[in-house]
Specification:
By secondary structure, this protein is mainly beta. 11% of the residues lie in helices and 32% in strands. The radius of gyration is 29 Å and the shape is elongated.
Length: 195
C-alpha cells in the first residue's frame, strides 16, 4: 500500500511540475511521460526589446522675426526624427532650459499668448503638406525652466517624422538679441501607434 501511495505522489508531483511550465506557453501538442521516464519539452519565449533608439539633431538654429506676415514668427529648419526601434515610441519634452540673460526685460509665455514684451516658443508636428507651419494651432508650448510632461511626436516602429520650432513675440521685443532654448527629450515605448 505504501508503494502505491508513493507512486501516486510522484505522479501527482510530476503532473503539477509539467502543468505549471506548460501554462506559460501555448500548448500545441501533449503526450504522457511515465513516472521514472524521460522526455523533452519545447519552450518558446518572446524577448521584448529594452533598447529604444531615436535619431534627431542635437542643435537647431532658428530665427524669430515680427516682420513675418504669418501667425508663426519663427523660421526653423525641419527637425527630422527617426525611430530606429522595432516598437512604437513617443517623444516627450520633460524639461526646457531657457537662457534669456541677454534679454533682461523680456518675459516668457508657455501658452502661446504674448504681451508686448513676451516670447513664446514651442514645437509643432509637420503637417501633411510638409511645409513650415504658418499658424500656431496645435503647437506644443515649452515651459521655461520647469518640469513638464509634453508629448510632441508618436512614431511607429522604424518610422520617420518631423517637427518644427514655432513661436511668436510681442511688438516691443527687440529682434537683435539672442537667447537659448534647450529642451530635454525623453523617448519611451508606447502602446498608441501613430494613426
Amino acid at each position: 500500500m505504501k508503494k502505491k501511495s508513493l507512486c501516486l505522489q510522484l505522479a501527482l508531483a510530476a503532473t503539477l511540475m509539467f502543468s505549471t511550465v506548460a501554462s506559460a506557453a501555448e500548448i500545441t501538442s501533449t503526450r504522457d511521460i511515465p513516472v521514472g521516464g524521460s522526455g523533452q519539452m519545447e519552450m518558446v519565449g518572446t524577448i521584448e526589446p529594452t533598447i529604444l533608439s531615436v535619431t534627431m539633431p542635437t542643435f537647431v538654429p532658428f530665427n524669430l522675426s515680427s516682420s513675418l506676415s504669418t501667425q508663426n514668427k519663427v523660421i526653423s529648419p525641419r527637425i527630422n526624427v527617426k525611430n530606429n526601434s522595432n516598437v512604437p515610441v513617443q517623444v516627450d519634452v520633460a524639461y526646457t532650459k531657457v537662457d534669456m540673460d541677454k534679454m533682461p526685460n523680456v518675459g516668457w509665455s508657455d501658452t502661446g499668448a504674448v504681451g508686448p514684451n513676451d516670447i513664446a516658443i514651442g514645437l509643432k508636428q509637420e503637417g501633411a503638406d510638409g511645409e513650415m507651419p504658418k499658424d500656431l494651432s496645435q503647437a506644443r508650448w515649452l515651459k521655461k525652466n520647469e518640469a513638464q510632461d509634453m508629448n510632441v511626436l508618436i512614431l511607429d516602429s522604424n518610422q520617420e517624422g518631423a517637427m518644427y520650432v514655432v513661436g511668436t513675440l510681442g511688438q516691443d521685443v527687440s529682434e537683435s538679441a539672442t537667447f537659448n532654448v534647450t529642451p530635454t527629450f525623453v523617448v519611451s515605448k508606447t502602446s498608441d501607434p501613430q494613426k
